[in-house]
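Run log // design_07
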């Protein structure tokens, strides 16, 4: 499994020859100007919630690639009404896709579309594949529900928001990594806006002080698990 950070809350995951994009926010992200969303491959687009900074490039990518939209029912219907195909889910539900099993997990946040319309409740994704298992928390506070994750799967990587203000910050993410029982963390949802700028070295040293590894990828960079 190869995971590429496409900026903010966005990931591009290559697993079993399938390409999965999560929460694409590239064209409106000043920090991701060097990425071309027209070059992002996608068989599926997983969307955690309806906020603008998680869906801005969904239609662009889906219209070009024919990628299937996977999200909660309301977000699926929003895009399905625009002619995009996909798969609706909701909290606690799992589905076996051709790349692996996806569970839509709980998140504590909000989920309105930019025009104020209802985007269902926000979530995250647990993705279990033969090449590895990852938890993508989505935009969320630290929540006790994270303790449910290790009851379902053993993680190789946890992708956690660390930017604070709109989501949990570094200190809460360290507790979250305890709750999900994973010591390898990919941080996301930081630096994009003034409210969520963080000190990278301080964040990494706080994790390493707890014998955990915080990975902060340059936008466009990848890791293999
Ligand atoms: Ni959000
Ligand atoms: Mn966000």
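design_07 sequence
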């Amino acid at each position: 499994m190869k995971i590429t950070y496409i900026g903010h809350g966005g990931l591009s995951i290559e697993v079993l020859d399938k390409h999965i994009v999560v929460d694409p926010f590239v064209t409106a992200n000043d920090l991701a100007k060097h990425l071309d969303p027209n070059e992002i491959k996608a068989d599926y687009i997983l969307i955690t919630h309806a906020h603008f900074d998680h869906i801005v490039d969904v239609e662009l990518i889906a219209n070009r690639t024919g990628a299937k939209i996977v999200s909660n029912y309301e977000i699926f219907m929003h895009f399905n009404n625009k002619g995009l195909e996909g798969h609706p889910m909701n909290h606690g539900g799992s589905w076996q896709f051709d790349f692996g099993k996806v569970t839509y997990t709980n998140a504590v946040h909000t989920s309105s579309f930019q025009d104020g319309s209802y985007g269902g409740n926000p979530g995250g994704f647990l993705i279990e594949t033969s090449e590895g298992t990852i938890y993508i928390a989505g935009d969320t506070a630290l929540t006790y529900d994270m303790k449910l994750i290790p009851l379902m799967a053993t993680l190789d990587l946890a992708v956690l928001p660390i930017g604070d203000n709109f989501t949990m910050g570094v200190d809460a993410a360290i507790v979250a990594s305890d709750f999900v029982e994973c010591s390898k963390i990919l941080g996301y949802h930081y630096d994009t806006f003034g409210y969520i700028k963080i000190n990278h070295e301080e964040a990494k040293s706080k994790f390493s002080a707890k014998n955990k590894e915080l990975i902060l990828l340059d936008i466009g960079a990848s890791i293999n698990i």
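The mean pLDDT is 98.
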